[in-house]
Each structure stands twice: as structure tokens, then as C-alpha cells.
Amino acid sequence: MINTELQEIKRDMAKTGSVTKVTTHVLQEMKLKGVKIAMLTAYDFSMARLLDRAGIDIILVGDSASNVMAGHTSTLPITLDQMIYHASSVVRGVSRALVVVDMPFGTYQGNWKEALQSAIRIMKESGADAVKLEGGIEVIESVERILSAGIPVMGHLGLTPQSIHKFGTYVVRATDEIEARKLVDDSRLLEKAGCFSLVLEKIPAKLGEEVARNAKIPVIGIGAGGHVDGQVLVLHDMLGITTEFSPRFLRRYLNLSDEIIHSVERYISDVKLLDFPNEREQY
Ligand code: KIV
């Protein structure tokens, strides 16, 4: 199934020189057909272009940029202007994937007017396709207002990193009955409000399966098991650029930190030993 889908994308590119853009409608069809959705984060033009060429369905300009790009210990410090900068860089590198942008902490929780203004700025100034925000009933009015302005919204439940100071820990969420029921209720509420998709982070696989089975919209998991409609990972984690973060749900596809360090070590040595540049590398 995956290979067939990728072959279709490549045929599309070869025939027309362009590709069919992934829209919220396409994602809905993928859910109906049982085609899994692949989503990754990106924060810059070059990486976004590579992910798009590889055939990724959704690129999330995550507020994890706060950690992996800016070196903060949480997602809280990143600003709206910084998210717009990352998002507009990503958009310039993408022709097929749907680009979703995280609304940063403090730009939508206060009141719906501020939320709407923030979402409009993201869409207008970055050219992205949709926004994502964390929470259920607490933010439902903001979600509804953003949707009524015609902006597609992706929800995010379970471990919501912007609330890390409330949780106090990054352990698995919704393991008890009360939190699990609230998550199920919130997922229904977000779907009913009109969200086009939902991210579930670090929850028991059985709960992820239950939510995805009952939802008509695609449910994308990160540490929510294999029975949801798609998966998302933070790019720097799956490429092994970050090394200190190793939750069970993370599969590393590369050890890029070692590759980069070895390449830089070779470069330093070549410069110091007068091996670079050689005769052919100069004018
Ligand atoms: O910011 C982010 O990278 C995210 C993913 C973990 C889903 O929200």
C-alpha cells in the first residue's frame, strides 16, 4: 500500500513535473481508504524540501522548534514571530505536503480574539495550510472561532508539551480512567467543532485505537500505538541529530549526529594539514 502510494506520487511528478497537493480533503480520503498518513516536523526550507521530495504527507512546523532549533528546554519560549519565520521558510520548500503550524504558547489560551488574530497572522504571513493547537474543552471557543474564519485546525491531546509545568513530568498520559474519559470527550468535541485532524501524544495504544476507531477525522499518533491513522515524529529525533531524548516510541532512522561530527572532524583535519583546498578546488 505504502509503495503503491509513493509510486503514484513519483509517476505524478514524472508526468506533469508537479504533484497533487495534499489537502485536508485528501487526508480525509486516506482515512476512509485506510491509507496511513506520514507526518514529520520541519522548521526550515532545506529540510522541508527534502521531506516533500521524499513524499511526506504532512509537515508540521512544530513548536518543538523551541527545543531543537533554539535550544530551550521546553516549547514555551518560542514566539509567534519566530513560528511565522520558521513556517514561511518551510512553505517555500514545499509543493506537495500539507503544512501545519503550531500556535505557540500564550497566543490562543487567553481569549478567542487573540487566538483568531494569531491564527490569521500565521496563515497570512507564512502561507501555511493549517494551524495546530493543544487542548480540548479549555480552548474550544478559540478553535471554533478560528474554524469559522475558514482556517483548518488540527487538535492535539494527551501529552501536550505546552502544559508541561502543570503535568510536572513527560510520562505517559491518560493511563487512569478519568483522564482517559476526558481525552475521549475532548476528541469528540474537537471533531464536532470541525477540526480536520487530531494528534494524540504519548497515551496508551488501546486508547489511541479507541479514539481513531470512533473518529471520522484522521488521528495521527506520536507514542499512541499503531492503530491510529498516521504517525508523526520530530525530524531531529528520527534522524538522530538529537541524541539525549530516547522515549520508547521513537525510532531512529539515522545516526546523523555521528555523521556530522565525523565529517566536520575530517574537514578540520584537511584544513589544518593543508589538504583542503587542493589544486582542483581553487581558481
Ligand atoms: O511541536 C511538535 O513537534 C509537536 C509534535 C510532537 C506532534 O507538536
Q: Topology, please?
A:
Layout: H1 2-16, H2 24-33, E1 37-41, H3 45-54, E2 58-61, H4 65-68, H5 80-92, E3 98-102, H6 112-126, E4 130-134, H7 140-148, E5 153-158, H8 164-167, H9 177-193, E6 197-201, H10 205-214, E7 219-222, E8 230-233, H11 235-238, H12 256-272
Parallel strand pairs: 1-2, 1-8, 2-3, 3-4, 4-5, 5-6, 6-7, 7-8
Helix pairs in contact: 3-5, 5-6, 6-7
The structure holds 3-methyl-2-oxobutanoic acid.
Radius of gyration: 20 Å
Spatial ordering of strands, largest sheet: 1-2-3-4-5-6-7-8
| Binned strand content | 5-15%
Parts with pLDDT < 50 across at least 5 consecutive residues = none
How would you explain this protein's 3D organization?
The protein has 283 residues and is α/β, with parallel strands linked by helices. It has 2 domains: 251 residues, Phosphoenolpyruvate-binding domains (TIM Barrel, Alpha-Beta Barrel); 29 residues, no CATH class. It is 45% helix and 13% strand. The protein is built from 12 helices and 8 strands. Helix 5 packs parallel to helix 6. The model has no long low-confidence stretch (mean pLDDT 95). The structure holds 3-methyl-2-oxobutanoic acid. 3-methyl-2-oxobutanoic acid binds next to strand 6.
Task: Briefly summarize what is shown.
The chain has 283 residues and is α/β, with parallel strands linked by helices. It has helices at residues 2-16, 24-33, 45-54, 65-68, 80-92, 112-126, 140-148, 164-167, 177-193, 205-214, 235-238, 256-272; strands at 37-41, 58-61, 98-102, 130-134, 153-158, 197-201, 219-222, 230-233.
